[in-house]
Structure formats: C-alpha cells, structure tokens
Specification:
Elements: H1 19-25, H2 31-43, H3 49-58, H4 72-84, H5 90-96, H6 102-115, H7 121-126, H8 131-134, H9 148-157, H10 164-167, H11 176-190, H12 193-202, H13 208-221, H14 227-232, H15 237-254, H16 263-275
Helix pairs in contact: 1-2, 2-4, 3-4, 4-6, 5-6, 6-9, 9-11, 11-12, 11-13, 12-13, 13-15, 15-16
C-alpha cells in the first residue's frame, strides 16, 4: 500500500470550483489552475465524459514539469482517472507506465488497480522485469526503480494469475512494504491462507506504519480469518475499523444471494462495534 505523494493534496484554500469550471480549467494557460482542477475532479468524483476526456488529455501534458523532470499534472490526472472509474482511461493509463516520472507510473498503476481491467496485465508485468535483483533504490532518490507496491497490488486486483511466478519472489524483497504488497497479491490470486497469515504476522511487529499497511492489505483482500487479529492490533481504531469494514464488505458480497447474514459477518460486525 503506497502512500500518495504530496501532489495529491493541494491546499484546502484553493479556488472554489464547479464541475464545469474545473473541466474548463484543464485547458487553462495557468498551470496551477490545471493542476488543481485535475485533483478536484478526482476528489469530487466528477464522472462526466468531458472530465474523463480532459484528464486523459492531461496525461500527455508537457508544460507542467519540475526541475527534476517530474510531471505533477500528469500525476494528478492519473490518480483522478482511477477514482472516476471509467475504463475508457485504461489504454492511456497503460501508456503512462512508460513515463520517465516514477510517480506518474505509480499513480497509473494505482488507478489501473481501481479499474480492474485485465488488459493492463502485460504492461504491469513488464515493470517486474529483472525480478527482485533489479528492484533496488534509485541513487539519490527516495524510491525504488519501479513502483513495485502499486504494481503488485494492481496485478492481484485484476486477477493476473499468469504473474504468480513473478510475484512470489517479491515475498523476500528487502523492503517490508513490498513484501506486504506481494503477500496481498498472492492471496488475491491463489486464495491460499498462507499469504493472508503473512500479513497477520506483520500486525505483531514493532513498526506502527507497517502495521497500518498490513491492516489496509487485510481489509483489501477480505481475509476473514484475520478478524480477531485486526481488532486486537496495536494501531488506531480508525485503521482497524477500515480493515474490518473491508472484511465485512467481502463477506457480504460473497453472501449476496443468501437469505440471512452468516455468523462470520455477524462476528465482524460485533468486532467493529467493540471499537466504536
């Protein structure tokens, strides 16, 4: 689970917008207005066709560049497109996986995870080239050569079972968060409890931030056997409630045709009540 970079959160005192104005601002000569508009359209889930088209166009922006060669507008546009849920954006987001900006690639992978289109699998798998041996930190930068956490999570979410042999070695990656992402993906692709238990074990560790990551992962995969461990984890109740909500949603989805709520779902509800 990758923390968003600061570009996702413009100041709260930004300009007051309407959907129409935000869409229009994507074409503004003022780069700050374009940047804010892309963020705003994603935050408020403006799903109009013109918004989607404008954000897709912004993925090819060349004007908004940082001194280090980053593309802030592209980053915000990529994030927003995942939130809008329109699969029309999939081909353009796939193209973004080749962008020289790490954070654009990361945002694109995160959005492709949300959109869950298997057409993205080959391009995501390509980012795993070289395996764990090549998955090292970029010299002088705070990130690895590829956004492995986002890529692994996306492959798990879209059901890319062909990627299992490539994902499994990342369970031994030296970065713990990458290990968590690999365990999350492996559980989604195999439904084998051993991978869910790897995440449960993380909840027993000393790193609070990593425990938060594992809580998010367990909720995302709906690993029901982790319910008690989640409720008892040494972390803020807000994180535990989000994880338990994820378990409950998965369980309710599985029981969508049932005439009554299962004992497992009731148990999760009780755990959630105990945290409120």
């Amino acid at each position: 689970m990758i923390e968003p970079s600061v570009e996702e959160f413009p100041a709260d005192n930004g300009p007051q917008l309407t959907p129409e104005l935000a869409i229009a601002n994507l074409q503004s000569s003022d780069l700050s207005l374009r940047y804010y508009a892309a963020w705003w359209l994603g935050k408020y889930r403006v799903k109009e066709g013109a918004a989607v088209d404008g954000l897709i166009a912004a993925l090819e922006d060349e004007a908004d560049r940082t001194e280090l060669g980053g593309y802030p507008l592209r980053r915000n546009a990529a994030r927003a497109l995942g939130k809008l849920g329109d699969r029309k954006a999939v081909p353009s987001l796939i193209n973004c996986l080749d962008c020289p900006d790490f954070y654009v690639r990361e945002a694109a992978a995160q959005s492709l995870e949300m959109l869950k289109d298997k057409a993205a699998a080959p391009a995501l798998i390509k980012l795993l080239d070289g395996g764990v041996a090549q998955a090292v930190q970029v010299t002088g930068r705070p990130h690895l050569v590829q956004p492995y956490e986002a890529v692994l999570e996306a492959l798990g979410a879209i059901g890319a079972t062909d990627a299992i042999p490539l994902i499994q070695p990342f369970l031994k990656h030296p970065v713990s968060r990458v290990q968590c992402a690999a365990a999350r993906a492996m559980y989604q692709l195999t439904q084998e409890p051993v991978y869910g238990e790897l995440l449960v074990k993380v909840l027993e560790g000393n790193d609070l931030n990593l425990r938060r990551v594992a809580l998010g992962d367990l909720g995302a995969i709906g690993y029901l056997a982790a319910a008690e461990a989640i409720a008892n984890a040494k972390a803020e109740n807000s994180f535990k409630l989000i994880a338990l909500k994820g378990l409950l949603e998965h369980q309710m989805s599985a029981e969508s045709n049932a005439l009554s709520i299962s004992d497992q779902a009731i148990r999760v509800m009780k755990l959630m009540d105990s945290l409120l």
